[in-house]
Amino acid sequence: MIPVAEALERILSALHPTPTETVSLPEGWGRVLARPVIARVTQPPADVSAMDGYALRAADAAVGARLRVIGSAPAGHPFDGTVGPGEAVRIFTGGAVPAGADAILLQEDATAGDGFVSPTEASRQGRHIRRAGLDFAAGSAVLSPGRRLTARDIGLAAAANHPWLQVHRRPRIGILATGDEIALPGDPIPPGGIVSSNAHALAALVRASGGEPLVLPIAADDRDAIAEAATAATRCDLLLTTGGASVGEHDLVQSALGPQGFSLDFWKIAMRPGKPLIWGDLRGTPMLGLPGNPVSALVCAVIFLIPALRRLSGLPAGPVGAGTALLGRDMPANDRRQDYVRAELSRGPDGALTATPLPVQDSSMLASLARAGALVVRAPHAPAAPAGTPVEIVEFSSIGV
Amino acid sequence: MIPVAEALERILSALHPTPTETVSLPEGWGRVLARPVIARVTQPPADVSAMDGYALRAADAAVGARLRVIGSAPAGHPFDGTVGPGEAVRIFTGGAVPAGADAILLQEDATAGDGFVSPTEASRQGRHIRRAGLDFAAGSAVLSPGRRLTARDIGLAAAANHPWLQVHRRPRIGILATGDEIALPGDPIPPGGIVSSNAHALAALVRASGGEPLVLPIAADDRDAIAEAATAATRCDLLLTTGGASVGEHDLVQSALGPQGFSLDFWKIAMRPGKPLIWGDLRGTPMLGLPGNPVSALVCAVIFLIPALRRLSGLPAGPVGAGTALLGRDMPANDRRQDYVRAELSRGPDGALTATPLPVQDSSMLASLARAGALVVRAPHAPAAPAGTPVEIVEFSSIGV
Question: Where in this chain does the record put each MoaB/Mog domain (chains A, B) (predicted)?
């Protein structure tokens, strides 16, 4: 059994970011930028007014002065002339400050009429003027590679005049559920069988992490079926299997794939749930074999697959982001396996986050997993922890799961 | 000017959840459930083994006893007979516990061979048996309406044998940018003009909140163009405009839409950035008019559009989720407008979250908005706050923006 941290390191060190593709700006949302976005324009392109009012010379803007309004400069319609002494130009937010003017008189600080305007408050040089390049200058990098593009980033790339973006291709993840006993929802259920939940839960998790799932037909617990299905998926960036990872006679994934060129790195991790986890390489395609129990499969996916998807996506990758909460009930000392305990989250009146472990932790129980807000992480050999102890948690909402 | 909370209440009270549609299970991820998911099967369907080992009578499981192995029960292949005294059945995780047996002997607690098995540890009644219905029973509601379906929920709906789900239709949001001075990225930029960023930033925000954006062609600052574009969008669940909301002569949205049957609810909010914000109804379609400045538009979208999208989506809706951080620098007293101040987030060595307001807050500056991690919320007339004061924040990552 190897520790969780070592297993994760070995997984991440075997993976590389996907190649780059070109997508249109609107498709760029949520994708990982692969090349810097260099501004192609300066923003604002010239000195512009930040307010509605009058462009004038600050020296002329004494209270009670009478200035002749010689033109108008709405946004997008620059005034061509020059503002001379005793003159003003009507201007609107975003309008270019005309030559000669060096201040903006707010319209609420002026009385206007009959082709003239008169300040009721003084103005000063540079007031209410946005300088050219205040936001960014042409040639500067406004977005750096290796970030997942937000709505704000899309706005910034648009403003920098980029209709196309270079992003990493979505990692393509083949998902293979194995087992004689499982049927797809709505399909006839074999005697003694159950409905398959892992493949579609994992597909949703892959999509939530920016990947593209490829759900393969269920493979029976039979060497040929598993081998055939798995080799069909070797064009993926990563092959995920569920089931068949344990030590029983009916756990076939390893033995079925060996003759197909599967090379094992490790398959036992000191964690709970999820000890049997396969990591290896199937003829050049990295392969992660998750346990068959639904809770074990999803917890292992959170701990190993999400970081793997981040690495494949071109994002900084490491352990999934952890937070802190106070224990809502006493916990016993831990044994030598790292424990991930389903817990409900609540916030006290003082804003403190409390994680209360659910009483039954059986790894087949999906309903309690769906209800849980977080996993409480218990290190190997952690001592008993009374209620109120701060503990490390993995909050599901923070990782989009 | 009306307060932010009142404006939000008036917006939410005018909106209703979209109707329901049927989607396949994999499409259900991220959608808002509209009808309960009632389990169609019991899970586990029968008492099953939680481990690999031997099913037997607990009374027989004394250390050193010699039990005859009469058959095998892998998952999906139930053993048809009955386990009698002195007998055992080889069993695997998920296999049905055969009639007669009431305990599971772990394989690591047994020595086996020659058709017999002998316990090296005692077992007790019910040990390592998952009872039928431990996870859920047929007929029970495993998922309730009004929640956005996570990967865990999709797994649970699958296990409950649902290939289809009833969800709310994605809210369709028409997005209309107005202005003579703006051009789409890559298109020729008019003299004195700038590249349009609002429409695509807002479209990304709509998608991030589970909506379906419909980006309309840019409308020139001209009554006919605005009226035509806006009425084209009356089949949407909500029409969003940007620009043309202020008081200047060139702010045309209200005057252009009046003759088209636009009925105004309010248009001035005591907030910064974003005072001019239009809310009303265009012949039955709710209409939100955002300011034209990119930062104002996005901040107003965070504060008003995200809650509106939640209401339209069938989710519980209220003010956008707020957190707390410590101020990273002194802030002056606030005036009568609620202030949303872009800030960088950082975590100290003690884990405390600090929000440091960016020095320049001009509402045209998209680059600083993209870099910011949060908005610091300053209530009207808030007193001066020294560095270290706890303040309310809206964290962008927590709302997917």
Answer: 174-311
Q: Are residues B153 and B118 in the same domain?
A: no
Q: Are residues A211 and A279 in the same domain?
A: yes
Residue B250 has pLDDT above 60, yes or no: no
A333 lies in some domain? yes
A306 interfaces chain B, CB cutoff of 8 Å: no
A354 in Cβ contact with A345 (< 8 Å) = yes
Tell me A260's DSSP state: G
Residue A157 covered by a domain: yes
Judged by a CB distance cut-off of 8 A, whether residue A19 touches chain B is no
A77 to chain B: which residues are within 8 Å by CB?
180-181, 192
Indicate the Cα dihedral angle B45, B50, B54, B57, nearest 10°.
-70
A127 versus B309: the higher-pLDDT residue is B309
Q: What is the pLDDT of residue A251?
A: 63
- Determine, for residues A293 and B44 on separate chains, whether the beta-carbon distance falls below 8 Å: no
Residue B395 forms part of a structural domain: yes
Looking at residue A144, its pLDDT comes to: 97
The answer to whether residues A261 and A354 belong to one domain is no
Q: Does B112 touch chain A (CB under 8 A)?
A: no
Same domain for B158 and B251, yes or no, is no
Residue A125 contacts residue A57 (beta carbons within 8 Å): no
pLDDT tens, position by position, A207-262: 999 999 999 999 987 888 888 888 888 889 999 999 865 555 556 787 888 888 89
- What is the end-to-end Cα distance of chain B in Å, rounded? 27
Query: Closest Cα partner for B285 from B257, B307, B252, B246?
Result: B257
What is the domain range of residue A118?
48-130
Spatial CA neighbour of B353 closest among B326, B389, B393: B326
Q: What is the pLDDT of residue B363?
A: 81
As for the ipTM of the complex, it is 0.93
Same-domain pairing of A208 and A157: no
Band the pLDDT of B251: cuts 50, 70, 90.
low
Mean pLDDT is lowest, of A202-206, B107-111, B112-116, B361-365, for B361-365
Contact A92 B248 (CB under 8 A): yes
Asked if the C-beta of B345 comes within 8 angstroms of chain A's C-beta atoms, the answer is no
Q: Of A329-338, B130-139, B350-359, which range is least confident?
A: B350-359
Cβ of B92 within 8 Å of Cβ of A196? The answer is: no
**Contact flag B324-A351 (C-beta cutoff 8 Å):** yes
By C-alpha distance, the chain B residue nearest A37 is B367
- The whole-number pLDDT of residue B246 equals 56
A308 with A335, same domain? no
Which chain B residues are closer than 8 Å to A207 by Cβ?
A: 29-30
pLDDT at position B254 over 90: no
Do the Cβ atoms of A96 and B192 come within 8 Å? yes
Q: Do residue B26 and residue B146 come from a single domain?
A: yes
Judge whether B94 is closer than 8 Å to chain A, CB to CB: yes
Residue A95's φ and ψ, nearest 5 degrees, are -75, 145
| Same domain flag for B179 and B190 | yes
Q: How confident is the model at residue A2 (pLDDT cuts 50, 70, 90)?
A: very high
- Is residue B119 predicted with pLDDT exceeding 60? yes
Q: A266 pairs with which residues across the strands?
A: A279
Q: Do B364 and A198 count as a contact with CB atoms less than 8 A apart? A: no
Q: Which residue, chain included where needed, has tokens 């990273």?
A: B328
Q: In whole angstroms, give the CA distance from residue B173 to residue B170.
A: 9
Number of separate helices (H) and strands (E) present in chain A? 8, 26
On whether residue B210 sits in a domain, the answer given is: yes
Total structural domains within chain B: 4
